[in-house]
Fold:
Amino acid sequence: MSQNKVVVIGAGHAGGTLVALLRREGFDGQITLIGSEVHSPYHRPPLSKSFDGENVKWLHEPSFYDSQEITTIFGDTVVSIDRDQHQVQLASGSQVDYDFLVLATGAEPRRLNLPGEDLEGISVLRSLDDADRLKEAINTGKSLAIVGGGYIGLEVAAAARERGVTVTVIEREDRILARVASPELSRQLTRLHADRGTQILTGAQTTGYQCDFGRVGGVYLADETVVPCEAVLVGAGAIPRDELAREAGLACDNGVIVDARMRTSDPSIMAIGDVANGPVDGLSTPMSRMRVESIPSAVEQARQAAEVIVDLEPKKDEIPWFWSDQFDLKIKIAGIVHGEFETALRGDVTDGTFALYHLRDGRLIAAETVNSPKDFMAAKRLLASQSAIDAQQLRDPATDLRSLISA
Ligand code: FAD
Structure:
């Protein structure tokens, strides 16, 4: 399916990767990349790990787009899609025609709409501008409360502790990372954070924010206690930016529904990245479809979209994976942790170097590795090969993982 005019909405990781791949794969039609942010695409992961807003890590040097004859429109927002006319309308009033449209609009931080949420000192974290605000709040305050014990919250907790800030993580569920990690990884990370001075409250429901001379001064909890703080990060997950797609009548359900090659219900429109909800290899029903919010997935989906647009033979899908850095812990996860599973531990949790292999019906479904690149590589190969594995062999430090892969 070779098309002349490709328009990509969303100049984030997925959109920025796609436009570069299209040129690399020889697409010689017009490419237009439209993004609401004034910046060209940049890496978001450093925002929660180093808060280093001054040293932005660009996806490509800003001059790259001109050199590749990619038209960029930054600082403008697509407000509607006319599917009959094959045209998008921008907030500035201009229109752009497409033969092929790709939605790469990402996700936005979930707002909890609690009393006091607009107080100064309360931030979310998605963009460079958010990171600047958060950094400012942390630099001027000595105590930070983080509402939500997800990956972003824990990364910020670690970075703030390293700057000597007092940190309290407030998690509604009975464990941190409840939605995305195994109970064992949650337990180990809780311990590792506590050892480094982070206070973690679980089963703690945030009900609002205390005002202290016009700024946030604390977080109210349902048990009527208050967590005093000078700054708050709300890290309560992200929701897909799929309103454009919904208004245009595309099939959506927690994101834009796509097939295995990122095609939406309209043959001229694809969706990639955090906004796309599609089939994921190795998932069983009722979770056969999901949004995978990660850089590797954004890159993989951009590759799949490029293959469709340039009409290339599809390559084999990559195993989904994700990473997170907290203190000196390099956490890498291969596969999707979901449903029931048996866990085999390899390594030593006390020195922070270990891997949790999760098995179902004698096959690996996911592995969570901490400071153990060897285990991560082995897990990816085990997932790809779908070899039958015995949990006891995995637990045994004498087992050579390569022997399991070839088995
Ligand atoms: P985004 O990068 O969010 O880009 C979407 C872009 O679309 C945005 O710039 C938005 O402004 C724009 N847009 C939306 N609507 C419109 C519109 N109507 N018109 C024009 N433009 C529009 N993943 C990992 O794998 N490892 C990590 O360690 C990690 N750390 C992270 C840390 C932070 C702080 C954050 C926020 C995310 C992190 N992620 C991490 C997740 C990863 O960054 C995302 O999965 C990835 O950025 C998704 O790319 P995307 O292009 O789909 O969305």
